[in-house]
From TrEMBL:
Source organism of the structure: Aureobasidium melanogenum
Residues annotated as domain GH18: 1-51
SUPFAM superfamilies documented for this protein: (Trans)glycosidases
Name of the featured protein: GH18 domain-containing protein
Domain of life: Eukaryota
PROSITE patterns named among the record's database cross-references: GH18_2
GO biological process assignments: carbohydrate metabolic process
């Protein structure tokens, strides 16, 4: 996997978001992110929470395409 972000650079981006009062952060893909304290996603979330962003949307983002012509998409991307 190739990445250019670290937990440090992600925290710096969170500072940029806070300073400019932007609406939030996003990632194209995060399945390769770490699961420990050096996680890029958690670095941003923690930094924004420290800034008082306690109104973070925690809604489950579940997309469904029951009419897709692709079996894996129509079936919810089952593993296996």
């Amino acid at each position: 996997m190739v990445t250019y972000d670290t937990s440090y650079s992600a925290s710096a981006k969170a500072d940029y978001i806070k300073q400019r009062k932007l609406g939030g952060a996003m990632w194209w893909e995060s399945s390769g992110d770490r699961t420990d304290d050096k996680s890029i996603v958690n670095s941003v979330v923690d930094k924004l929470r420290l800034a008082g962003a306690d109104q973070m949307d925690n809604t489950l983002n579940l997309l469904q395409y029951p009419s897709s012509k692709y079996d894996n998409v129509r079936n919810g991307f089952p593993s296996g």
